Fold each of these.
Amino acid sequence: MNITELIIVTLVKVLIIVNVILVAVAYLVYFERKISAWAQNRIGPNRVGWRGSLQPFADIFKLALKEDIVPDNADKKIHALAPVIALLVALSTYAVIPFGPDLIIKDYNIKLLVADVNMGILFVLALTSLGVYSITLAGWSSGSKYSLLGGIRSAAQMISYEVSMGFSIAGVLLLSESLRPVAIVEAQSGWMWNAILQPIGFITFVVSAFAETNRLPFDLPEAEPELVGGFHTEYSSMKFAGFFLAEYANMIIASALIVTLYLGGWQIPYIEKLGLNPILETLLCFGAFLFKLAALLFFFLWVRWSLPRFRYDQLMNLGWKVMFPLSLINIIWVALLIMVFGL
Amino acid sequence: MSANPKRKRLKDLNFWERIYIPEIVKGLSLTLRTMFKPKFTMEYPEVRFDPPGSYRGRPVLVEEENGVERCVACGLCSRVCPALAIEVQASETELEKERYPEKFEINMLRCIFCGFCEEVCPEEAIVMSKDYELAFTNREEAIYGKDKLLVPVKDLRDRIDFLRQYK
């Protein structure tokens, strides 16, 4: 492949991924509403299109028509910048997450990820940490007490959970001996999924992922009953839509990360023993990735409609006194696995 | 928040409850089971709620089979109405009942559906119907005259039976 082909292929991949993510986010909102309805014995949106399947587009259309209100004592530039940061972070993280094994068509070898970076996991960690800025800046620049409280909460929450998240990832990195997402996936061949090898790390990572994406039971920055919507109280129209989109896009990232790091990525255990056509096998693996992703996203929504919100002090207790020590124990456990079984 | 650390809570959590996870699984299984249960939602414009006899919809005047209203224009309903929604103007008639309402108006913007008019009526002439679909586009439209208030007695059977049984 020469350089022009490389650029074209990469651009096409970027285009496809961004569009797919945006549509996926729209439908995630739809399913959020549906699942909340089902969990409460309701039907949910069912008027726009077949069983309400066009509802997300109606929602977006409505948001686009709304007046964009900026409060008088808001810091206008930063107020406008915050949702942009949120979206930027949410959409650029997908670059390093592999969706499937290499697709080999004739002599073309197309990798099913945008950028095979050798420090991909660091890239993801760095970008998701930037997400704190969008929320904190949004809270600070709105010129409203509720927003400010939401922003402060989010900063405190995300920083404390980032620690245990980082330590849980360290366990994965020890086993795979690489920061490349592809290498991490390949290290989990067969049933050697990290979720099975290091269940404690898996749990701490999932909990931290919930906290990182501000989903219930950790949605303290939003906390409708106390903070009127928290950091996005003063946002309306497309700026609000930006935050909304970023939240759901972050959920997809978090799920994709969990799949990549703990659930064996695209791999179906022992599929290579069936001796299938390589293209079919690739597509099956891609399907497996999507299936795992969808299952995790359902879990995210399901948890939201089952669990109540934590109190602020409980959240901090859980973060520093439970999750942090557990993630350290996990590292020791992984070290033991390597020492004793030589994995 | 109790300030006394010695005070025990009514329900102290045991070990399994304190590590959250079994409890979380319980909660999740509950919501998952609920997702497959039949739904309560009534899809309104297609499916309409058919209220029981005890339902208090908009008040209406009972019209006998011969097309005459039962009302004798005594004005008690208008007197008792806490929202001052009813206006009655009496007039004389050759019929046995001697009096009839020349004008009977209920301002549906004022009506609070308390049912006092029905309770006070000596002739069982004003009753609460099952009609709950009330919409107007202006204030004049909201004042219901005799044309809108008169309802044949056979359509009000449920409510009249209910009143005879419980009133």
Amino acid sequence: MSIRPLNLASLDEPETSFEELNTTLPRFQSHETFAPEDSAQPLSTSTYIPTPSSVGTSDTGTVFSNSADALWSNRQGEDDQDMEVDHDDEFLNDFQEFQNKKDDFDDAIKTNFHLRNRFGVTPFKNEDFAEEFNRKLSFGDKPKLKQPRSMMELKPKRKLSNNVSSRNSRTVNSVRFKKSMPNLPLANLVIKEEDNEEQDREEQRRFDYKDDDDDTQETILAKFSSDDEGGFLTGFEGLEGEAIDETTSPNDKESVNHPPFLKRKSTSSLPLKISPAQYDIVKHDELLTPGLHRRQREWNTQQELDSFREEEPIRHFSSQNVQLNGPAKIKTIKQQIDHNTPMKKGSMIYNPKTMKWEGNENVLNRFSDVDAVNRKALLIKNKLQRNVDDYTKKKKYPDLQQARTASRNQKVVGNMVLDEQNLRWVSVSEDETDPFAGIPEINLPPVGKTMKKRSSSPFLRSHSQVSPPLFSNDSNGGYQNTTAQARLRKYHSMRTLNGSANSLELNPIFHLSSTALERIYHEENRWCRKLASWFIPRDETIIGVEEETIMDESTINGKRKSYMYEIRNMVINSTKD
Amino acid sequence: MTSIEDLISNPPLLLDSSLSQLRYLILSEGLPISEDKQQQRTRCYVWTVLSQTSMEASTQRYLALLKLGPPSTTIYQKIKNDTSRTFQTDPNFRNRVSEDALIRCLSCFAWQTQQRRQKPQFSRIPVSTYVQGMNILLAPLLYSCPSEPMAYQLFTKLCYEIIPTYLTKNLNGAQNGAKLLNISLRIIDPKLSKFLSDNLLTAEIYGMPSILTLSSCNKPLDQVIKLWDFMFAYGFHMNILFVVAFLVKIRSKVFKSDSPVNLLRQFPDFDADEIIRLGVGFIAKIPAQIYDLLVDHLTDPDIYIP
């Protein structure tokens, strides 16, 4: 593609830029910027200028708001109609027109001056225009040079500077660029709000470079090289005014194409002009913004890339124009609250496409490790395996068979099998001698009576062995337990440590299920929430199992019995009357 | 939301006056009999508040006792014998309370009682590990409480603090209760009292079950619950007067009956409100010193009633 269509597109930029300028106008200190000392500032100075980008626009904005408001408003209707026309044809026509009839262009400038005079604005001399244009250029460039430094990377800036050195833009370019300047602040504002948008445009820019490298780069360069083209400066100033005329001209139809381009230009000065290919954005937790992340994913799909390659640049711009014009802000906001908006919490990222949270995929690896590496953990075997195991072990250890069939969840660790009936671990492979065979049982005093009931089975003994595998499982596997499970485990451990586990095992009555435990704890908590205020702590200790305190019974009784006379007093009082 | 629920939902400004207010609401409005879980909770809450039985750490204590397993074989056998018969014919009770729950609570009580015996401050009233009738005493609590530990906590409150003398080895308090029943009946209904004594029917014979179980051996259970509402509010000594009311209610039948013993063995189904009305009415006729005895005999094992 040729350079010109793009440049032509830039011609019509004022249309959008003016519109937006009017809205942004109040923000700028136009008086300050018009001050003569400001205008003398060179391009290279790094002295502070309040919101550089906005200052640049304020100049043009004020100029036109004085002279051209009336005309501007008149022509908006026409513009809207023109938008509908096929852009390709018009685009080429306009381009030719522009090339061949340069005189028309000058005429337009002249008419603009007439217009200005008509509206009471004093005409400028060429020198003044040059000076002012210089000044504006410096303002326009400031953001480009400054912002990248302050915001993030120097990359965008470097790219630009390379372009500057390698290319020289033509007058036409610079002229068009000049008009584009007012758009810079607008673009900045939008981009500040929405990184996605910026990334979006950045991507498009990349493709643009591929397709028509010259066009875009040259137009971008225009800003930097415009200083050298002092001879054209008068024309620029004129063009500023001419923009009004242009809106009326048939070139309007191209205006549709321009703003997106301008925006692309302006975005080149922004910190986020980073090629996603150069940066690994996704994995970095601190720097990662949702927008960046999402965009990169989206654009990296081959489909999306291809779609851009196939598109004709002109069409691309025109279509983009609709998005990035006035409604661009609205679209921006909409995207923020869209259901597609990626969410990030900690290290987890929500992928709206797959509707899944991503980022902790490797967490599950631990479980594969349990099988492969950590043989201490309990194996959860499927039915098939268990049946096979049963079959092989049946012959070797017939004693276990009954217990195994009784409980379906057989636990195997190494070559040890949990004998669930007796709650002990026994070897699968061979008979083992009971190391506790000769040691008599030691019963706790209160438990002693019940111990008589114990059977003399060699498997029945202290079951403290049960707890180690259970708890080692905790530490190794790092499994998450609910509070109820933890309590249940505590309850089990208490039981086993007390030595009466055996009688308990024989008596399922005394074994509360975890759901029952959860329920009774829940009920107690509920009670405490509601009724704790009705109780003096002292009363609690009287009932306590462990912490019962010695209290004078007479005082307790005296206090306790008084209520028993309440009914009598009521009755006696009522009968007296 | 009833006014009772409203009252217990808010922290009491003054505990004693708020308790009095709650008692009066029990007397005047009463708690509804309902299958509703929330109503059940409310009743349990009211009972805990009235008896000042804190449920804090009740579950923890209960589980600590539960981990001890069944008590000694003799006790355990006694318990199991009785639990299997507890309200066998009451489908409502059977639906709500499992025999296992009864066994668990009574076993825990046996353990806790054994532990208490080793502490000197509880030696004055040696509550038995288990006596027949405890299962019936426990039944309304398990029936009315949303959780087993809460029922157990109330049960221990009842046994250790409210009617400890009833549960000693020789049932000393219950014996005194029977004597007081006899005295009260003689005061309230001399004719019936004479008729019964003429038939050699002493209060120990016809009154003991109702005295020892705080009337919970009578049917229906839901009416027993209402009686208990009142007794948690105004004192379980009222049970003696309620037994008098039971007798007075069937007095005409007793007079006509050829074998009054059969009538007295099991009182007919009753209406709690009627019994309460009668019982409260009797208070006016009871002399102050007898009333003192009624109050004291529940907790004082040294009372001697001729």
Amino acid sequence: MLKISELAFSYSGNGCKVFNDFSLSIEKGAVYGLLGLNGTGKSTLLYLLTGLLRPQQGSVLYKGEDVQKRLPSTLSDMFIVPEEFELPKMSIKRYAALHSGFYPRFSYEQLQKNLAMFGLDDTVVFNNLSMGQQKKAYMCFALATNTSLLVMDEPTNGLDIPSKSEFRRLIASNMSDDKTIIISTHQVRDIDSLLDHIVIIDGSQVLLNASSDEICRRLLFTEQPISEPTDGALFVQPSVAGNSVILPNEFDEESRLNLELLFNGVLAERDKFIALFNA
Amino acid sequence: MNNRFGFSRFAAVLKCDLVEHRWRYICVFFIMFVALLGCQLMHINEIIEWSSLRGTDSSLFMHRLAENCTAFFYVVLMFALICAAADMSSVSFKTKGRALNYLVMPASKLEKFLSRAFINIVLVIVMAYVALFLADLVRMLCVPFFEADGFYGFTVHQIFVNLFDPFKAVFENGSTTNAVIVNDEVLTPVWSFGMCFMAVVCIVLSGLWSHSVFLLGGCIWRKGALLKTIASAMIISLLVLWLLVNIAPSIDVWAENRLAPWLEQRFETEEDLLRVGFPIVAFLNLAFVVFNWWLAYRLFSRKQMIPRTHLFGSKHPHHLFNKAHS
């Protein structure tokens, strides 16, 4: 669905490259979690995926079309919710009336349903809402466009605690097999139950690109008392109860994916994880 | 899906732009209205005074008012067109958020460019005439305060008709200045219709060329494009002037020894020279207009969410000429 090949990109001003010879493939019908440290280019990657920035080398193909061309057929099938955005001074209803025509599968009923989940009304004007509420309204509109690709940058930033669970419910209820959602975030606890696929990047390299099922099949996430030995563990992190440990899942045991632990583990022991998932 | 140009999508982009930035356009309209109304009201007293000095009656008031306001109207219109042209990308690309909204809008680059050009040219012209019409109406409401009945009427009609005056003048001058008078009888040669027409074309094209320079500036810079364009034009003019001053002696020699004899040999009369000169000037102007519009479109369509260069929107200006990236 989305194919990134040999991407190279740098911002002018600082000479260092954000991406260098970076490749990645995104398949349809999954919720992708894009993780990485600050400054590794997560937001930049999202902008490159949606054609908002032009790479110096390489290409980004969406359903076989170069996103750099910014063709209406491509743009009407993708939507980006950035971390910071600027909405015009008008009601949600009016905004939807103006912009819905660009998206062939836009559903007004879905918009109203989505807004109701967050307790919002379509007559309210964007500027009269707080930043968090604006984000909710914008996400509701984004999901109502029913585009095949939805890209979200830090969607849970600025949302209150109940809204974070509403957000998970919203994504789950709007998800279907022909849609792909890419979520870039640092707040992994907010969305870990949503993700079907995890991508951890560090600019020039994809450190991990695997489905949640595959990760749980290969790795065992467990909590151990401090007295218990951690021999053979891929990664150990001290926790309140003792140690949080990632072990190779040799006996097909079931465990719940601990995204924060996995992220720390991949960054600390990258060679071990790369070797394990490339085997 | 038609990815090149669709009228319904063009109209939708236009509608979004107009609705989202309506206060900006209303503000521009209001400024034009106030300026034109102010001009009309200020001229009323002056015309009454002029009339009393000359002893003319009030039937000439409207004609005189329209005459006095014409130049000001064209200054307002020209200034508005220049400002709007320099504003090509600032409305949609001023901030990161605005740029993002505009770039992801599912319309082709051509539709977006044409919608901005339509607003910044056609809409501004229409707004100027509507503002003048409203200024006329408000002035008529104010006439009782001046106790001068002759000011009931519309200047907008006469000013619109006056639009063609400079061209009429070209035809009139063209057909008399070269006339040869023998025994009080006007004989040929006079400028032919074709010559007069080419002169008018040259005037129109030089206006379009000046406008296209500001349009180009508006597509290069996201902020302060008007001042930056004026500054750049001044710097370029100074450089050309400096160059001319430095090479003037050699040009003089060349013109005297080579060009003048060559011209005399080739073109016997001034008309012969102009017959060739006008099309060349017109062609050069047209070439500059087309080039500026083409470059403006290329720069506009290659804009990114975050400006990554200093001048051409790309670290690699050769990309502008690369079709694969269009």
